[in-house]
Amino acid sequence: MKIVIAPDSFKDSLSAAEVADVIQAGLEEVFPEAELVKCPMADGGEGTLDAILASVDGERCNSLVTGPLGDIVDASWAWLPQSRTAIIEMAEASGLQLVPVAQRNACLSSSRGTGELILEALDMGARCIVLTLGGSATNDAGTGMLEALGVRFRDSDQSPLPPGGQALARLERIDVSNMDPRLVEVDFEVMVDVDNPLCGPTGASHTYGPQKGATQTELAALDAALAHFADCCQALFGKDERNYPGSGAAGGLGFAARTFLQARFRPGIEMVADLVQLARHIEDADLVITGEGCCDAQSLRGKTPFGVARIARQYHVPVFVLAGTLGEGYADLYSHGIDAAFSIASGPMTLDEACQQAPVLLQALARDIGRVFRLTIELHK
């Protein structure tokens, strides 16, 4: 018996690695002799770095960089020496979790720290840099990142623009003459789990600005500022990436990665699956168990259960989802390779209670599902 355990994190409760450990513990109560293969997963958002390092031979590095509001933060990133690949989770340097709620300011926050991590990777001799775009505190279209890499942004007086997306409304000139020359020797790949464009009602500002502290008035101004930045980039490079799916990711950092770094975009779950060699583990498995904090219709847009199920379907391996909650539309996953989905909630409870009790509830659910699966096997003997 071989069971592959490939869950995402349960947000505000358990990391992907912790979820895998708990599921393993529950299954071991039923299948003590089974081969249980843990592959913690992620789709490009927070926790992607930890999920990758839990499954591949890499080094965790730490660097002091500029946080979203200019303070110094200690950011982790991963170095894979064999392939000379750096994994940079932008939320580590420019993430929303780094800024207290009362201090969040989408108009002024900067992605500079993410650019400083890229410089660290270049100093290590990186030939491939993977950027994961999720959980950002910024709405500066990646200009802070680009400034760290040597790009200069000037107003009509040729003065440097201050940090943040709001200042882009005054942008008159983009100077790339001092952009780090090593960048052209590096392949950039971007992990995304959203398909928002840079501007408009579904763009970076209107969709994600409110959670970053922007008011309704500021949203319109930020959207216009980012559109002006895209106009300036189009005039400079002769191309317009503002409507490319995912350009609005991480407050528009996706746009900067496409325009200035020629980054290739891939669904985050696909890239993580490749890095941890998920297909190789699944091909001879008897069962795959995946999961996430909330499984609903949004899971079909490239979230972990959907991506895991696509791989398992190729090898005709059944897939169960264990989730913190099952939201509206979760059953749509049944036509995409998911065979059954379960919630850990054992009765009426608040979200806080579910998060606090998640380890116990999840282990019990894994045990019970294991018992049902064992019975199914015995009935078919």
TrEMBL record:
Q: Which UniProt keywords apply?
A: Kinase, Transferase
Quote the Pfam families the UniProt record gives. Gly_kinase (PF02595)
Q: Can you tell which superkingdom this protein's organism belongs to? A: Bacteria
Any GO MF annotation of the entry: kinase activity
Q: Which family does it belong to?
A: Belongs to the glycerate kinase type-1 family.
Its name, as the record gives it, is: Glycerate kinase
Organism, by scientific name, is: Stutzerimonas frequens
Classification lineage? Bacteria, Pseudomonadati, Pseudomonadota, Gammaproteobacteria, Pseudomonadales
